[in-house]
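Moderator note: this is an archived Q&A kept for reference. The question asked for a predicted structure of one protein chain; the sequence and the answer are reproduced below.
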Amino acid sequence: MRHDREPEREVVRLFPPDRDGVTLHVIAQGASVGVSADSLVVRPLDGPETKHAIHSIESLLLHGYAQISTQAIRKCVEHGIGVHWLSTTGYHTASLVATAGQVQRRIRQYRALADNEVACLRLARTLAHAKVEGQHRYLLRATRGVNQHRDSLQTEFRGIQEMLRLIPAAESCDRLRGLEGTAAVHYFRGLRSLLSDRVPGELRWAGRNRQPPLDRFNALLSFGYGLLHSAVMRAILAVGLEPSLGFFHTPRSAAYPLVLYFMQFFRVPLWDMVAIGSLNRGQWDPDKDFDATSAKVWLSETGRRKAIELFEARLGENWKHPVLNYSLSYARTVELEARLLEKEWTGEPGLFARARLR
């Protein structure tokens, strides 16, 4: 971008600093979404209906068994509003967006990434290094000024630092997966120690587990990652890229490789930091916000509402992006990084995944 090539030039705002509209989440089970004039109408099984002006909505997310009428779907399509379906645990199941006119971008993506192991490995190493460095910086930042805390994490710091040293020279994606996995083990051990002594035992965890989560912390982590997956999916589709063709995971019908790996870049700033901070502030009730059985743990409706509020608030926060050199919301940052990814094969490489925690 021009600022990167000519840093002395005055910054010109070409990229909008925030979203054009809000994300409407429908989480009440059995609720239905209809349309009335220029508004979407949400009708829960219990309670009054609510109306939402169509021009104020950017995306519609239906959680669990919420339903939407054909007329409402058509209205969303006419106004460019993406409709996304998620499970009650936050797992993304499907999306409906208008994608006409994006074919040339997807052709360029196919040409750049299909059967191009060199380009794919270069991008994978770039993103892996950014992800692991973000994990390292968060642990350092969270233990700043607490010498006893930081001393107890020296093994984890050294382990992550060693992975950061090895990632740029990884000779294959399989090798890269191993290095990332080792870094993740050290990171989650460190993450566990960031919880305040005031956090009740029911909200602590012994290690990372998922599909299904076996404790409350992992349920909280997985639900937030589901929200992040949907946010990244929306950004990738808005840019016009093909989510099924990535540069790290193998293409498959049951998942979206580009989304799965792209979201790794945002796990720390958009959910790990939010989850740890909210737990330390005492915002979670182990009984009211979670449903637990011997087989799995998931968020209750009140817990899902709380997580969505925290996540949407985080998306609305601003920070200064190093490529643009001005502040924009995290929601816009996700879309910007998708556009910078596309520049890797359209003539301006080296701008993608440069953002870091400070």
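Archived answer notes: The longest strand covers residues 57-63.
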